[in-house]
Design brief:
Helix content is about 40%, strand content about 25%. It is globular. It is α/β, with parallel strands linked by helices and about 270 residues long. Strands 2, 5, 6, 7, 8, 11, 12 and 13 form an 8-stranded mixed sheet that branches. Strands 1-3-4 form a 3-stranded mixed sheet. The chain has a two-stranded antiparallel sheet with strand order 9-10. The termini are far apart. β9 and β10 form a beta hairpin. The chain contains 10 helices and 13 strands.
Length: about 270
């Protein structure tokens, strides 16, 4: 199995996850809820650090180290070798459930139905795809259930590289469909591009800023997915100061919003 090598921006994301999961589990345990952790793109549970070359814990292991512990853990990955490693981690731990396959199908059909509001169940879900591999229906279902807090990776690098070209007519239809699936419809086109008239009388499309597109996605999480509280996104930058993705957090609880705002502040550029 070839392990992934992750940059410092991913390690920041892991620090954020650790801090929030710790606070979340403490609160939900005190309230007596059956709370679970869900990792939709779990990986092998360990990675190499790009900066040091050392082996470091991935999000599944970070979640398993949280005290007080979650009542259950659900790890999903489409890679068979990584799933085998997750299964090794789960040995002799009946509270850990490992799934191999497409998380878009597994979350909606097998995992989310276990987190019912009336059963006093709650969940923290990490939706951290490498690119445009997430289905909007997953996000929308999580919002409608009123029981799930989510971290969402808005994969700006993939979007800018493959979708948001100056001339949208030149974009491969496959990438358009991937964007539609992630966004939920084609409304992103009218947000990402502005039509302007030239001095010669003909119209052309100008691409909007990354910030404008991220702001629109935040509004969509509130208005279309039904989350009451959605953080202002944290831009995750590489060593060249380019934004690779925006990290969003969405919840139904105001206290969750306050906790994540305080955590995000530590990593916001001044």
């Amino acid at each position: 199995m070839k392990l992934d090598t992750i940059g410092f921006w991913s390690q920041i994301k892991h620090d954020i996850l650790r801090q929030y999961a710790q606070a979340y589990s403490k609160i939900l345990t005190a309230k007596g809820f059956h709370h679970v952790y869900i990792d939709a793109f779990a990986g092998a549970g360990k990675h190499f650090s790009q900066s040091t070359g050392q082996l470091i814990a991935g999000s599944p292991r970070i979640a398993l180290e949280v005290v007080p512990p979650f009542k259950e853990y659900f790890f999903i990955d489409i890679d068979k070798a990584k799933v085998s490693e997750l299964q090794r981690i789960a040995l002799d731990r009946p509270e850990v459930h490992v799934f191999e396959g497409d998380c878009n199908e597994i979350l909606i059909s097998e995992i989310f139905p276990k987190i019912e509001y009336k059963e006093y169940r709650r969940g923290l879900c990490l939706l951290d795809p490498y690119g445009l591999h997430l289905d909007w229906q997953v996000i929308k279902t999580a919002g409608e259930m009123k029981t799930i807090d989510v971290f969402v990776n808005f994969p700006l690098a993939d979007i800018n590289r493959n979708v948001l070209w100056r001339n949208i007519d030149c974009v491969d239809e496959t990438h358009i469909l991937r964007m539609n699936k992630y966004w939920g419809d084609e409304s992103w086109k009218s947000i990402a591009y502005t039509k302007v008239s030239s001095l010669f009388g003909w119209d052309k499309l100008l691409k909007e800023s990354n910030r404008t597109i991220a702001k629109a996605f935040r509004a969509r999480l509130i208005e279309a997915a039904g989350f009451k509280f959605v953080s202002k996104p944290l831009p995750m930058r590489n060593s060249r100061d380019s934004i690779i993705y925006y990290l969003f957090f969405a919840s139904q609880q105001q206290v969750a919003q306050k906790i994540i705002r305080d955590i995000f502040k530590k990593y916001m550029r001044q």
